[in-house]
Amino acid sequence: xxxxxxxxxxxxxxxxxxxxxxxxxxxxxxxxxxxxxxxxxxxxxxxxxxxxxxxxxxxxxxxxxxxxxxxxxxxxxxxxxxxxxxxxxxxxxxxxxxxxxxxxxxxxxxxxxxxxxxxxxxxxxxxxxxxxxxxxxxxxxxxxxxxxxxxxxxxxxxxxxxxxxxxxxxxxxxxxxxxxxxxxxxxxxxxxxxxxxxxxxxxxxxxxxxxxxxxxxxxxxxxxxxxxxxxxxxxxxxxxxxxxxxxxxxxxxxxxxxxxxxxxxxxxxxxxxxxxxxxxxxxxxxxxxxxxxxxxxxxxxxxxxxxxxxxxxxxxxxxxxxxxxxxxxxxxxxxxxxxxxxxxxxxxxxxxxxxxxxxx
Amino acid sequence: xxxxxxxxxxxxxxxxxxxxxxxxxxxxxxxxxxxxxxxxxxxxxxxxxxxxxxxxxxxxxxxxxxxxxxxxxxxxxxxxxxxxxxxxxxxxxxxxxxxxxxxxxxxxxxxxxxxxxxxxxxxxxxxxxxxxxxxxxxxxxxxxxxxxxxxxxxxxxxxxxxxxxxxxxxxxxxxxxxxxxxxxxxxxxxxxxxxxxxxxxxxxxxxxxxxxxxxxxxxxxxxxxxxxxxxxxxxxxxxxxxxxxxxxxxxxxxxxxxxxxxxxxxxxxxxxxxxxxxxxxxxxxxxxxxxxxxxxxxxxxxxxxxxxxxxxxxxxxxxxxxxxxxxxxxxxxxxxxxxxxxxxxxxxxxxxxxxxxxxx
Lengths: 360, 360
Description:
- By secondary structure, the first copy, chain A, is α/β, with parallel strands linked by helices.
- Chain A has helices at residues 17-26, 37-53, 68-78, 91-102, 147-156, 204-215, 226-233, 244-260, 262-282, 309-318, 345-356; strands spanning 4-6, 61-65, 83-88, 106-111, 131-135, 137-138, 143-144, 161-165, 182-186, 198-202, 286-288, 300-305, 321-325, 334-338.
- Chain A is globular and about 65 Å long.
- Chains A and B meet through helix 1, helix 3, helix 4 and helix 8 of A and helix 1, helix 3, helix 4 and helix 8 of B.
């Protein structure tokens, strides 16, 4: 039986990917040179589509890396000389902080209790922190910041750089990118692609910061430092041979999403999220993990399980529906359900019905 | 018309890749969790196949990165505290040296004239150089070191680490990996896969060196430092979500290569290389770029063109055969022809016939 994946990444492929993959093979996309016109056209299309889909303001650039994890390291190299400040809401925001420390820089932080987000209005951030890191949607816990909280931080700290993790948020949730200086995501979440590609958005202030560090004699990394990425991106190229196939697929999936319309994708996201939250409320096996309703993620819905999560996951899997376990230590006590653009209303309704008719 | 790519990477896909890709999609490989048993089995198979195909000695570990370019940076972070020494035979060996410098470490070097390799017996390498870098097959110029030269360096410098670039060499050329401490390649050359995956081989001395640097307080990078890669690889996992699809394809292509037999692949490589060199000798449009015959690469055959290379490339492309231009400044004056395992004897014979019947 062909299964449907509601795991929070890698997840179900976007429903058009299989066709695009066939076209890619038929037209030799994996064999083309990354220094030739065919590749440059893919790069350009991909970049224009992302800018359009996310309504990026003027002056924001898009770079391609191998993952969002790589972007954490590139931000730590290019945008932080001494110190950063991190809102830690779970395992992924924590990992970024650790990467900054690994590069022998000081990573200050405020940590939220599990299933909550840090109350941004109560946090003291020293002026010495060059960059403030926020994670819009913490994929490990399903806790989501509000857009207003990002704006609050922007207003309070106009001089500092703000980095926003939009992994598993973009493009399903509307984000005002003009309020942040850099943002990033990987493609195996909402974009429904195979893993192996990260997208890094930076504004002019980031470019200036990296050049300032470089001119002071700091190492800002090598082939994937901002000046190298920028210089090559102006020619619609990358510093090293990239994951050309995934860039092609991303250019095609973003085209499909633009045709469908980002408003429609977000309306459906909201409907499906509401249905999943309702399902948790109704199920005798589940309770909400994120107590404060406005902080419940729309794209990564997390529930406590009143029995071992294995049993629920196995029962649904027998019916062809694959949901995720809890993250890390919560593996057996929680489930995580992805609500990405590829998951249709009908599929989420089916999943909801199956969850509500569980009898274990 | 479906074309045949003899470009030196990205190149023609290995002839079984299309079928493996169909199986991957049918069995949901892009959707599986990189923390689950199905992925661990792919990791394990891939690693065992590579070890077997390359006859790696005991005590050598295999890690997965996003590219060979990334490996350059990881070597510079993990294995060099202050100084390395580089044999520079062309653009790619030069790039590694530049990456070491970018990380504010000292990269000493000896450079060969274009189309030659550095005479290793005449080079003075200071004892202060912690790592010696050699490039077996310089993909930009088609100049190849001899195995005996690697052994000479090993004997002369038993204490220093030796890093061997085997991009576009492995597995087509036999290499005695026991003579080096680390080696690496990307999969879009001889392995005939889409770009977006690098393979990094390290021995115990590399692991010790990275731990020594870490314990001294040096930064050795973050998620892709050797201790992290090693710790996760023991569980057949990776520190971050990798290019799962490419790892699956690599596990399958290496399985196919093992079935065919590495000796057969190398015999065919030698036959096809000899035919291509003969073709250069016979063609009125081509001359050998690498003057010294034993240093002519078997897998990346480079020729000077007596007319603009564009014309030769266009004429062959009209007949469905795509060869590469010269690298960088030699773009118009040279051609580069890949001789990878996917290129059959019949295909190379066809290419040879077409080159010898050119009338421009």
